[in-house]
Amino acid sequence: MKHILTFAILALVLAACADPNGPSKTVRIKMQQPVYMSYEALRSAVRVDPPHQVVKPGKIYVYGNYLLISEIGEGIHIVDNSTNTNPRYVAFVVVPGSGDMAVKDNIMYVDSYVDLVAIDISNPEQARVVHRIEGIFPQALNATEFYYSDPDSGVVTGWREVEVDVDVSDGQYRWGDVPLDRPVSSDRAEGPGAPSSGGSGGGQTGTGGSMARFTVVKSWLYAVTHTDMQLFNIATPSRPLVWSRINLGWGIETIFPYKDKLFIGSMTGMFIFDNADPSSPSMLSTFSHARACDPVVATDSLAFVTLRSGTMCGGGQNQLDVINIADLMNPRLVKSYFMQEPQGVGVDGSTLFVCDGRAGLKIYDASQPANLRLLSHMAEWNAYDIIPLGGTAILSTREGVQQIDYSNPHAPRVLSTLYTRKM
Fold this sequence. Notes:
Layout: H1 2-17, E1 26-37, H2 39-43, E2 47-49, E3 57-63, E4 66-71, E5 75-80, E6 88-94, E7 101-104, E8 107-112, E9 115-120, E10 128-133, E11 155-167, E12 174-175, E13 184-185, E14 207-208, E15 214-217, E16 220-224, E17 228-233, E18 241-247, E19 252-258, E20 261-266, E21 269-274, E22 282-288, E23 296-298, E24 302-307, E25 319-324, E26 332-338, E27 345-348, E28 351-355, E29 361-365, E30 373-378, E31 383-388, E32 392-397, E33 400-405, E34 413-419
Parallel strand pairs: 1-13
Antiparallel strand pairs: 1-11, 2-6, 3-4, 3-14, 4-5, 5-6, 7-8, 8-9, 9-10, 11-12, 15-16, 16-17, 17-18, 19-20, 20-21, 21-22, 23-24, 24-25, 25-26, 27-28, 28-29, 29-30, 31-32, 32-33, 33-34
């Protein structure tokens, strides 16, 4: 939206400079031009490749003995994690434009730019598409930039800066050799840069982290776009059915289920939904904060929210908010704690995990919410998100994916690391 506004302001400036009676005047400006991928190419691109090392790890998801790792914008690594001290890459499922995933009964749901794809991973080395819902998402879920584009030309896989000549002599803006609406074609996805928590019941599901846009609860898949919560009925997992869409405003980022509640993080606050009827979540309350990126996790009486600046979310806060949710209709701030660049957050009982970006992973005793006590600090990682699993945790970092034994939170130890491949 900010880029559309920039073009509007530019038009006003050029109009003010135009002299309809004067000589021809051309101004050269720089602008962003979309790179498109055709829908035909997108929808024929899903395939299984031999396993390879992760390059750009993103969101993570645990399903049975498997660990799923998103390769940002490219696809999903499937890792055999039967032995967490020796994880083994099994396959790489190519899904252009992907960022999020969730699983129910061996069916993996993945975003592919504007589509939802259902993939059977009962045999990961022969994963296959069983269903696709085309165009269900108005924009790529994990897009980080928004410019004008033409949806009829395909999906936007990236942007490139071009220079264009604008004739402003008579107030009519005749764009030069590279018009706004001419797509640059692409044969591969150069997707926008970007884990879901599974509910119990209704079949086998998985567990993800606080940065998720997808989650499964019983026979329902929830996906939050930048503006809405989209519900899918997955009573038949291989055949997801579009159910309903709940408008949430702008800047929606994450979703986290806890018991019969849904906690949704946005750029401006946290939404709490009653999900006693999973087919029809209803909003209970909101907790507002200054504009910032906002993942959230919760327990019976507390919610933990991280606010981060320096991103498309705007804002200047880098902090952890601890919120009392004992009264779900009236959430209230307990205390804010300053952080470096907090991202994902996780909680296991009274043990709190904060992924503080380049400042690493911080583990706290949260038994006294107004007085968090730092138990340990693993500063060697640029930490992104974490999934606590009752004594062990999966940690996604810029350097790779670590598995950590935190049975003694004062002295956590790394069990294994899937390092990123240097390009």
